[in-house]
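Q:
My hope is that you can spare some time for a protein that puzzles me. I hope you can help me see how the letters and the tokens relate. Thank you; the sequence and its tokens follow:
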Amino acid sequence: MTGVTGVTDVLVVAPHPDDDVIGCGGSIAKHVRDGARVTVVIVIGRERSALDDAVSDAEFAAETEAAAKALGVHRCIRFEEPSRDFALTRRVHLDLVRVLREVRPQVVYLPHDNDDDVEHRMVHQLTVEALWMAQSEFFQETGGRPMPAPRLVLGYEVWAPMARFQYAEDIGGQIETKVEAMRAYVSQLRHAAWDEGIRGLARYRGAVSAGSGHAEVFQVLSLGAAPAAGPAGGGRD
């Protein structure tokens, strides 16, 4: 799975609720299938719109929990940072360092570095910096020991499909689980047919990387172990 054997802990950092499902939901389900514990951190809280204003915060939280349950996520942590007022403060960096030092993941997922949404790019920057901080001997106020470097750090796509990717993961066995998790976000489907969109993108990525099937593709940001073979014809750079 994703080029690393013996994975016990995975951390997914998502800017907003449902970004984890869209970007790497199939890979999450695959990690769970293989026995890993997956922790998801959702950095920014809900942004209400006229299309879902009638949905209460409790109902929206239940959607998030249902999506996580569908994928088999071990724990979902919500920072509830303010949307559009989100700032890369020391506090939010330390919040993520605490999680990293507790989970000590072998694999980390985060938004790729050139996504169209500015908050996605900010969360990319946040995670890259927090990874360094969590491995250092500093920032002792977070508690815990410095964590070892993850063996694999992957950037996923949400708003802006990547022009170039270095790794493709076959999610043919997980595509229905991914779609089911997306459909748990009933309020978000009022904005766009995300369930159809993620199925179509996975089908396209499967065709490009392996000739058929369904896949998720990733930017390889750090590689600490030799990758196993991905799908035939699998990523390119």
In short: The CA atoms of residues 151 and 225 lie 6 Å apart.
